[in-house]
Amino acid sequence: MLEAWKHILNIPCDISTCSSSILDASVVGHRVIVRLDAAIRDVLAHASRDAAAPASLLQPLETLLLYAWQELNTGKWSDVDANWHALYAAVSWLKAVATVLVRGGQPTEALGEEVIRICDMGHLMGGDVWEGILIHTISNVEKYRSGVAAYDGHSSAGNTDHLHPAKRPKPSHRPAIRHPIPTVHLPSLQAFHSTYLSTHTPVIIQGALSTWPALDKWSPEYLRQVCGSRTVPVELGRRYTDTDWTQQLMTVGQFIDRYIYLRDNPDGQMAYLAQHELFRQAPGLADDIITPDYVAFAGDDEPDVNAWFGPEGTVSPLHYDPKENFLCQVMGEKFIRLYREEESERLYPHESKMLGNTSQVDVENPDLDRFPKFSEAKYEEGILEAGDMLYIPARCWHFVRSLSVSFSVSFWFNGQNDASSN
After folding, report:
1. Per-residue pLDDT tens for 169-190?
2. Which end of the chain is more exposed for a tag (fewer CB within 10 A), N or C?
3. Domain membership flag for residue 176
4. Is residue 89 within 8 Å of residue 59, measured between CB atoms?
C-alpha cells in the first residue's frame, strides 16, 4: 500500500483482536464472528504488501454487509439490536480499505470519493466503531485531498464567485406578522431561565450567535467545499405529510446542485436536508458553531444537534417535539408560527401513532369545514433571520417555512423541568 494511504487509513495495529470487543456472538452468531475475523486477517495481510489485492478480497465483505443490511431492515429500526449496526459499520470500514487495496492504492480523486461514500454509508447505517474509525478515515481523506488541491493551486469547487442560488418557479411569500413572538437581546442566563425556560415561553434571542464563525463563512459553496462529498439522507417533497414524500441518499454536493442551484431540475422539485446529524459526519463544519450557554445552564450537556438545509419554500408541517429546542438561524430566513401546548385540542393531531405529534391542518391554507376549531387557536409568529435563535419549549407546536435558501441548526435538550414530558 502506498505510504499516503497508510497514513490516511491509519489502520490500528490491534484491530485483528477487535471483533469480540464490538460484537456479541450470542446475537450475531458464531459464524458471523468467524467470518469477520477471517476478513480482518485477509485485509490486514494484503495491506502489508506492495502489490494490488485481488478483487476476491471484497466478496466476503459484501456478503457480511448484505447479511447485516437484511437484519437492519427487518422490522422496526428502533428494535434492531446494536450489534447489527456495529457489524455494518466495521465491515464498511474494511470494505473501504479493501477497495483501496484492490485498486492498487493510487490516491486518485475518484478513489477518495469512493472511500468516503463507503465510510459514510457505514456511519449512517451503523454509527461508528473502533474509536470512531469511520469518521477519522473520512477526515483524513478530506485533509489529504485539500492538501493536494492547495499544493496544485486548484480547488475542487473551482471559481464559484459567480454562483448564486436559483430563483424558484413559485417564490415563497413573506407574510405579515400579526401576533409577534417576543424578541430580546442576549438575556442573562438567570433571566432566560426564570422568564422563559421555567415558564415554557417561546422567545427569539438576538445576538446569541454573534461568536459563530458560521455566520460569516457559510454559503452553499462553502458547504460544498467542507462536506460536499458526504452522503446524506434527503427528503424529497415539500412536506413529510404529503403522499408523494420520500427520501433519497445523495451527496451534499449533488443536493446543492439540484435543489439549491436547480441544475437538471427545471420544475423546481423541492427537497430538504432535514433533521440530520451532519456535524457528526463533518467535524470541520462543527467547528463553525458553538453550543449556546443557555443549553448547559438548563442542565443538559449533550444536546441533540441537527442540521436543516434547504431551498426557499421548504415546509415543516405544524408539529411538536418532546424536547426543548433552540433553533439557530445561520443562513437565510424562516417564517415561524407557534401554538402553545394548551391549544392542542384545536389543532387536530393525526390519529395514527406515527404522526400523533403532527397536525392535520395546513396552517397557511386551513380547511375550516373539516377543522372548524382551528380558527379559535391562539398563536404567535415571527421571522427568524440569520443570527437569531428561537427558543421553542417542549411540546410547543410549530410550523416552519423557509423564505429563502436557509440553513438552521437545532439543539434539542432536556430542561430541568421537562423530565415528565420526555
Report:
1. 555 688 999 999 999 999 999 9
2. C
3. no
4. no
